[in-house]
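Protein in question quoted in full.
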Amino acid sequence: MNERRAPRADEAAGMAAFIRKLSRRDDLSPEEVKAIEALKGRVRDVRAGDDIVGLRARVDHSTLLLSGLAGRYSAFRNGPRQFTEISVPGDFIDLHGLVMKQLDHGVFAFSDCRILEVPHADLRGLTEIYPHLTRLFWLETVIDAAIHRQWLLSMGRQNGPARLARLVCELYVRLETVALAYDRRMDLPMTQQQIGEALGFSAVHTNRTIQALREQRLLAWRDQEVEILDWPALTDLAEFDATYLRLSKDPV
């Protein structure tokens, strides 16, 4: 891992993505925005292929993903890992560590990532002063759990094309929310093996499934760029309903 202080512009961009996402869910006061922007911590660069958070690590901070793409995973001893969620910029990838202390998973960098490690003491101070932010941070962890439930349902009940379609739909909506996807296009810096690890597929099955969606003219997939050619048909195949991502304003 390469550790160094990030330029303020990069840190501000990642924090802005977090604020933008919270603002989709409820109105933030100017004071609340300033309080979030004032959060400080260690900024680190993590290379693609490295762990951001070690498996079952004990933590004294929570990590905000400023840039890049990361995956939460679990694994049995000496067994292959299973990704259970993908994190995008503006996500606190282990906010639940504030109360759990020891995590039950690890977090892997799919691409080069820049992160901000916010001490738990600072987060506790923020939640003690701003009860509304406490509820919004709680909502973040609730949505994490909702994403896990959707992944579990998809893994257990959908076929390969529907499972991949659901993943693409979810990632597009989440990236669009933080202004990192537009016009039905997004960058997806994951290998086919990693996509397979998220979907429970072999690399060969992943390739075949991507080809199936291409042949149906639902997706164009060029290296790491994904273009959704038919959004209504893709969401219909996936039975995708973004309600679980809670992206409409509803006061908490």
Notes: The chain has a mean pLDDT of 92. The chain has nine helices and ten strands.
